[in-house]
């Protein structure tokens, strides 16, 4: 089933590009309506093609007020961004931009330095400053596979603080 979902994401742009704008709008509205009912949730879908864009929404975003979902509503992406990040990284690996066994620090530190230069409130310029020495040695392969096996200092400090406040992390 996961393979079919992945295939749907790959084929979606081609299918959407083949539909006339009004047909695309209708198709999106139907998908939003069905999935909202199936999963008892609100949903917003948008597609942009060379022919234009279409969007649709269905469901309720505020049950107390009876507020219906709008295509302009914002939703947190949560863990789904991992798929897009991994796919983008693999495209760059295939293009030779870097290797899976490269450490993340040299790749990320330049971005963090640029961010810090633009925002004086940012008090870090490297992966090591942000998450500790263990994190700086993490490879792309480990990060994508979630197999670093390393305890990142900032996480451990947060876990210790949480525990000291009477919380419990399992």
TrEMBL record:
Pfam family, one: Beta-lactamase
Signal peptide: 1-18
Keywords, sorted A to Z: Signal
Annotated Gene3D superfamilies: DD-peptidase/beta-lactamase superfamily
SUPFAM superfamilies membership: beta-lactamase/transpeptidase-like
Top-level lineage group: Eukaryota
Protein known as: Beta-lactamase-related domain-containing protein
Organism: Symbiodinium pilosum
């Amino acid at each position: 089933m996961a393979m079919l979902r992945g295939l749907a994401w790959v084929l979606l742009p081609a299918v959407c590009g083949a539909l006339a704008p009004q047909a695309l709008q209708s198709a999106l509205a139907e998908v939003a309506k069905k999935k909202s009912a199936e999963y008892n949730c609100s949903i917003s879908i948008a597609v942009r093609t060379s022919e234009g864009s279409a969007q649709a929404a269905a469901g309720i975003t505020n049950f107390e007020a009876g507020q219906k979902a709008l295509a302009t509503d914002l939703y947190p992406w949560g863990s789904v961004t991992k798929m897009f990040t991994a796919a983008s990284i693999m495209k760059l690996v295939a293009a030779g931009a870097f290797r899976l066994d490269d450490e993340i620090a040299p790749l990320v530190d330049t971005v963090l330095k640029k961010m810090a230069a633009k925002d004086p409130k940012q008090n870090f310029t490297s992966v090591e400053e942000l998450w500790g020495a263990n994190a700086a040695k993490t490879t792309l392969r480990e990060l994508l596979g979630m197999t670093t096996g390393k305890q990142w200092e900032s996480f451990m400090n947060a876990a210790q603080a949480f525990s000291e406040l009477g919380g419990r992390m399992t």
